[in-house]
Amino acid sequence: MLIKIIVFICGAVVMSFEILGSRVLAPNFGSSVFVWGSLISVFLTGLSAGYYLGGRIADINPSSRKLGLMIAAPGVLFLTFPLYSAPVSDWIFVQDLGVRFSPLIASLVLFLLPSVFLGIVSPYTAKLMICSLHTSGKTIGTLYALSTFGSIIGTLVTSFYLITIAGVNALIMGQGVLLIIASAPLFFINLSCKT
């Protein structure tokens, strides 16, 4: 059950972070179609890379501790995000790369790495959870469905409620705390097919 909760949380965080990303970029780049196109493209790129890397890494001696590190890493990035996001965004804005490339470069620098880490989670957990080839399809389908359902909830809760009651930086740091808390049990347990 723990692994399913973690997959759900990571799915929720990645889409919540994308919604908040629009607010991070807005002061310098507005909220045009170029900003949203940049954000969506970068997050999809990061998730795709994460899926690929997660599958490759999972085939090399997978463990719950390694999974914990991969979930804690974006947690640390989120906790420190307010320290570097505005200066990076300001610097890219000053370079005046145009209305298309400025938000794209900012999105790549600020959001690609965390989305790669969060993309790693689903294939890596699938590898840890698969006990039999006879049930591998069900296991993979369940984990990806939970991740996607988490993404839906993260999108709706963030856009409908959280943005109205807290600042963007506070929410991103809160996501960092949530990821670190979610990763903590993984350092002390061995995942099995019953998890």
Nutshell version of this structure?
This protein has 6 helices and no strands.
CATH architecture: Up-down Bundle
CATH topology: Growth Hormone, Chain: A
Describe the sheet with the most strands: none
Question: What's the number of extended β-strand segments?
Answer: 0
What's the gyration radius in Å? 17 Å
Derived from helix and strand composition plus strand pairing, the structural class reads mainly alpha
What kind of assembly state do the chains in view correspond to?
Answer: single chain
Distance between the termini: 5 Å
The CATH class, by name, is: Mainly Alpha
Low-confidence residue ranges: none
Report the helical percentage: over 70%
How many structural units, i.e. domains?
1
Give the SSE order as H and E letters.
HHHHHH
Protein name: Spermine synthase
Organism: Candidatus Sulfobium mesophilum
Keywords: Membrane, Transmembrane, Transmembrane helix
Transmembrane segments: 5-26, 32-54, 66-84, 104-122, 143-164, 170-191
